[in-house]
Task: structure prediction
Amino acid sequence: MTADVPTLLLMIIVTSLVTSGALLVLNGNQRNDGLQYWAGGLLLSALAHALLLLYGRIPYLLAIVLGNALLSSALASFWLAVRRFHGLALHWARTLALLAAIALLMWLLQHQFASRVVIMGLILGLQAALVLWVLRQRALGAEQQRSRGALLLVCGLGLIVLTMLLRAGAALFFSLNIASILQSNLVQTLTFMVSFLATLVSSFGFVFMAKERADQANLRLASQDPLTGAANRRALMQALETELARASRQHTPLALLMVDIDHFKRVNDHYGHLAGDHVLRHIVGVLRQRLRASDVLGRYGGEEFMLLLPDTDLHGAAQLAEQLRQAVQAAPCEWQGQRIPFTVSIGVAASADTPADPSRTSEALLQAADQALYRAKDDGRNRVALA
Result:
């Protein structure tokens, strides 16, 4: 079964143009996620296929030499888009050198159709494989959930690799029996039909990748304190309710620590508010180094932090609190060549491992930890007090 090649080329051109325009609108003023490079690649693809469509009506230099160079440019732009998305260097010099080499090869092989098909099939397949390699390397280096967008992108690029290699193999080992790139046969039909599908699938995949990143950023903004990166108060309250419910189901203890920086106003007054912000970030780093993966650290408000310790009784929480207090005291904050010493007071409360325990409410646990914290401050600060 064959299809009209000019019609398939026209489908690719229209799809590429429409998708590129949609991506440029979607990208807006952002310049950090690679969408503009992907949209540029689609524009280059549309122009390349338009030149191929005009083969025989425009000079060979434009139709084949420039057309194939633009096809390679499109895949190079996709490669740049994925690298930009992952914050990698773009390597413009290598890209331009490849395009110049392709243009020269197409000029030298202007009377050898089969050789052109083999070479371009191998080059385009390799370029698509390089994009897949970048995706694989980033997936291996990041501990994250499987991205559905990345999966679509891999499928689209995989189609390109497979099609280009099959097209090159057909030209190398079998006769294509065509005199022009616009002539229809099974290989031509499969090539351009798959190119049409791959353009859609891979573009949707890249858009979904960008959307997933935006969703993750919005989730972080909704749950993280923007200054310290710790959980914000809203996220802390949700975690507290979740951990209390789990502790009740499993009959396990839950501890809560309230940590307050002693005389924090003096830090701001003496060193400035920027130094105070740095101290807040510094203490989060010190505390995190001594917490388990299951523990929750968040900024409760101002210079006050809250820690949730699942499966931890009052005795264990008191031991950890003392370790944290000593760690903070032993790690002054470095700021513009100065060392800012500071200490913390910590209030410790815990619910028992019995369902009937009246402390198994968020209000009761918070109140108990707050009262312990105030007692630590009243007793002279830089100490731990138990509820």
Observations:
- The domain at 5-223 is CATH 1.20.1070 (Rhopdopsin 7-helix transmembrane proteins).
- Residues 186-223 form the longest helix (38 residues).
- The chain has two domains: 5-223, 233-386.
